[in-house]
Amino acid sequence: xxxxxxxxxxxxxxxxVLNQDVGYAYRPDQIVWVDGAIDAVRRLNRAGYLVFxxxxxxxxxxxxxxxxxxxxxxxxxxxxxxxxxxxxxxxRYCPYHPDHRPERFAAYADWRKPAPGMLVDLMRRWPVxxxxxxxxxxxxxxxxxxxxxxxAGHHYGGGDLDAFVARLIAAEPxxxxxxxGEETGS
Length: 186
Hints:
Elements: E1 9-12, H1 37-46, E2 50-56, H2 58-61, H3 67-82, E3 90-94, H4 117-125, E4 134-137, H5 140-149, E5 152-155, H6 161-171
Parallel strand pairs: 1-2, 1-4, 2-3, 4-5
């Protein structure tokens, strides 16, 4: 089997970036896509980026829902995206929270943003080229995780996510920019 050439990746936070943050979403009826979210994922697919979702899900540690609920929701989201020709290549979530039974999910402590564990795990498992890769998030913890993983972080403050992504990749048309912790807003 031929080796796959490394490509830049786009990492998305979930709640507040791809879908409206309603607090502890774990069911399809709680998902309201952010304007332009599906188009943004499709745009990145067509531009040759790997696309990933990295999301803290402390609702699992808090006992509000379980890991199966998160995985079911991600499968549902993947189907909705596919209906529009968009694909998330892989999903990561962190069930750990230091204030809620931390021993239960201690193995995932370094996955909880601002730690870079979810990003690093994806970079190990996929042919990710750090140069040109970036994370789009809505919190300081997202920006810190991106910086710790050695990629750019872009703060999404609302609006049309597809237009936001279009501006990002227009500025780096070949996906070859260097890493950093830069922050851009809309």
